[in-house]
Amino acid sequence: MSIPECTSGYKAAIKKMGDVWQARINVEGMKLLAEAQTIWKSRTDSESAIEAAKLLAQIDPESTSYKDAGKLMNEIKEKAEANTPWDFSMKVYEDSINLEEQRLNAAKEVAIAYAENQQESNTTYTIMK
Fold this sequence. Notes:
This protein is mostly helical. The chain has a domain of about 80 residues. Helices cover about 70% and strands about 0% of the residues.
């Protein structure tokens, strides 16, 4: 992000930044999915269902693990106790809103870091008569 726009490598750096971001959300998604699967497979009660659902809701929709997370979420919905005091779909909705806020905050932090690392530009004007 600290490469000036006027340089020849700027477009390549921006593309690489997207690749790095995608790799990051894929790794995070795999970790969250694995943790949720471990929790759910170890015990299938309402407490573990809540715990696993919270982890699954943190997976970015752009992650490669998102589809598998949806499958696990459906499995949890089917097998969870009928009288659980919570609603999966509402929890997923609330967490997806939270995820979007986190994504916007991350972009904001990147922009701030980029702006803070810019060199100051001092322009001196000389008026000649």
